[in-house]
Design a protein that fits this description.
Pfam families: fn3. This is Fibronectin type-III domain-containing protein. The protein is globular, with a radius of gyration of 35 Å. The chain has about 575 residues and is mostly beta strands. Helix content is about 5%, strand content about 40%.
């Protein structure tokens, strides 16, 4: 509905202003942003102007970390080698297809699209009534698009620069960059531009290839990255190794470039919001915005994980948290609005209108004729108005659990949290989800629980954990933290164990088992223990044991009876202490 109203308003403006090309079709501007919340297993539509969540569609089975891109009539959940299409009008799943790769594509929302650009696979997918795949002939750099619906790509290996025009099914490649030149694409004033970092020049791209270059006035490294569109007419150039950003003017009235020293961080992505440049610092999980003069406007933290940055067709920049539970909306001037992504609260019924008061009848007048025995007439007491109890407020989803933290263990994390605000309905469950490069999962515990242990995790891998409370009205906003399981140092301690009296070839009282106590091994994994002795004739065999939940293994095995000989045990490359066998 939001998209339709915006499109109709845009159509009226075009009709009144005469800005549309003769015979050109009217394009529906896609407003707002869709995000997939992997904890709630649903997609939500966020109105960029108000920051309100105004639509929801269940999306069970979508891969955690999926991104959502929208077209005129449909939305597409992309992730895990799967594209799920749903209708924007009825919010129902239409179909699911496989793109043939689990690579995370660059999503572009533009007229005639949307598009998915698989850079490593070297192909472009146009989504819509039918899925159209266009091969690009090799790995691609960062793509850009114009408002007319043309997608431009650069092949770094060959230097080719190609256009996929709106509704076209193949690429058109005018003469590109010279062989061996590094660089990338951007769009300035809705015209594609190639920034050559070998010659430090910017070249407009036309039907005949690259136009005359304009000097950048800076030394752009080969690893430089650029915003897909200009920032108030300037090209934003990110120098990741140098921790610098440059804002370069290539227009006719060329102004000197502005250079900004960035705080220490890992600046992986950048985008233009129109009058501001947006930077994503993965080291601190923070979003920074700068104005065209290079002045820092905002520095807003994000929940732990791997946030994702996207530019909507409404020119706003949206930064999604890893689990889709939080979105930062960056307006054109660089202002940032945090938005929690959760179930919209149910509407609150207005209180009933006040009941009009009934008039109190006046007291009866005494008879003017005096009776034989006059009695004083008592006035009737006024009727007591019945008090109506105030209407009960309906429950809304609970608040985010406070104080979420994770404590590292061996292949495990212990998660603790505080009680979430019930918001009119008792919390009946807490849902705990986790995700990392090694995998993901979820579990549900009761409403009285304040901690749980996640086991079977990969040591040395950072996990993003989200805890969400649920009551009768549904799930609320999630609170996130991160943790990294740590494997303790592995060790094996050997000592003399129980005496043995039932083995014929073992002397008494010298005969006893070896006692093995191992720690720090991977829970649930089996290990083979082998005994060793300085006695050359000893052959003790081996014993395979499985580590417990805490990574420990304790057992007795390997009988031995040779006094003054030294024994020890090994398992998976770990050697125990050595002891000299003695009489009991």
């Amino acid at each position: 509905m939001v998209s339709t109203v915006t499109a109709l308003a845009a159509a009226v403006v075009v009709a009144v202003s005469g800005a549309a090309k003769p015979g050109a079709q009217v394009d529906f501007l896609q407003s707002g942003h869709w995000v997939f919340n992997s904890v709630l297993e649903a997609v939500f539509h966020l109105d960029g102007a108000s920051g309100a969540i105004d639509a929801r569609a269940a999306m069970p089975g979508a891969a955690p970390g999926s991104q959502v891109v929208q077209g005129e009539t449909g939305g597409y959940v992309v992730g895990g080698n799967r594209i799920i299409e749903f209708g924007k009008s009825d919010l129902e799943v239409k179909k699911s297809v496989s793109p043939g790769t689990d690579e995370r594509p660059v999503a572009i929302e533009v007229a005639g699209g949307p598009y998915l650009v698989y850079r490593q696979a070297g192909r472009i997918v146009r989504l819509g009534d039918s899925l159209t795949t266009v091969p690009a002939g090799g790995a691609l750099g960062e793509p850009v698009a114009t408002s007319a619906g043309s997608v431009w790509v650069h092949q770094p290996a060959s230097g080719a620069i190609c256009e996929l025009a709106r509704d076209a099914d193949r690429l058109a490649c005018p003469p590109g960059a010279p062989a061996g030149h590094t660089g990338g694409l951007t769009v300035v004033a809705d015209q594609p531009v190639f920034v050559d970092t070998t010659t430090d020049t910017a070249h407009p791209i036309g039907a005949d290839g690259l136009g005359q270059g304009t000097a950048l006035g800076i030394d752009a490294p080969p690893q430089a990255r650029f915003t897909a569109t200009d920032v108030a007419g300037r090209i934003a150039v990110l120098d990741p190794p140098g921790h610098r950003m440059h804002l370069v003017d290539t227009g006719p009235a060329k102004s000197p470039p502005v250079s900004v020293d960035l705080p220490a961080g890992d600046y992986a992505e950048l985008a233009s919001a129109g009058e501001a440049v947006v930077l994503l610092d993965r080291a601190k999980n923070a979003v920074l915005t700068y104005d065209p003069r290079g002045q820092l406007k905002t520095n807003v933290p994000m929940p732990p994980g791997e946030p994702r940055l996207a530019r909507g067709e409404d020119s706003r920049v949206y930064v999604d948290s890893h689990d889709g539970g939080h979105v930062l909306v960056v307006a054109g001037d660089g202002a940032v609005r945090p938005v929690p992504v959760a179930e919209p609260p149910p509407p609150v019924a207005p209180p009933p209108p006040p009941q009009p008061q009934q008039p109190v009848p006046p007291p009866a007048q005494p008879d003017r004729q005096p009776p034989a025995q006059p009695q004083r007439q008592q006035p009737k007491p006024p009727a007591q108005q019945q008090q109506q109890p105030p209407p009960a407020n309906p429950a809304s989803p609970p608040g985010a659990p406070p104080g979420v933290r994770a404590t590292a263990g061996n292949a495990a994390l212990t998660v603790n949290w505080g009680a979430a605000a019930p918001n009119g309905g008792a919390v009946r469950n807490y849902h705990v989800s986790w995700s990392s490069s090694a995998g993901s999962g979820s579990k549900t515990v009761g409403g009285a629980a304040r901690s749980t242990t996640l086991s079977g995790l990969a040591n040395g891998t950072t996990y993003t954990i989200t805890v969400t409370a649920e009551n009768v009205a549904g799930r609320g906003s999630g609170a996130a933290t991160s943790g990294t399981p740590i494997a303790p140092e592995r060790s094996i301690t050997l000592s003399r164990g129980s005496s043995v009296t039932t083995i014929d070839d073992c002397s008494i009282p010298e005969c006893a088992y070896m006692r093995i106590a191992a720690k720090g091994f991977t829970p649930g994994q089996s290990y083979t223990f082998v005994p060793h002795a300085t006695a050359t004739s000893y052959r003790g065999g081996s014993s395979t044991r499985t580590a417990g939940p805490d990574g420990s293994i304790t057992f007795e095995a390997f009988h031995f009876d040779q006094i003054d000989e030294t024994v020890w045990v090994t398992a998976d490359g770990v050697e125990s202490n050595r002891i000299t066998w003695a009489k009991s």
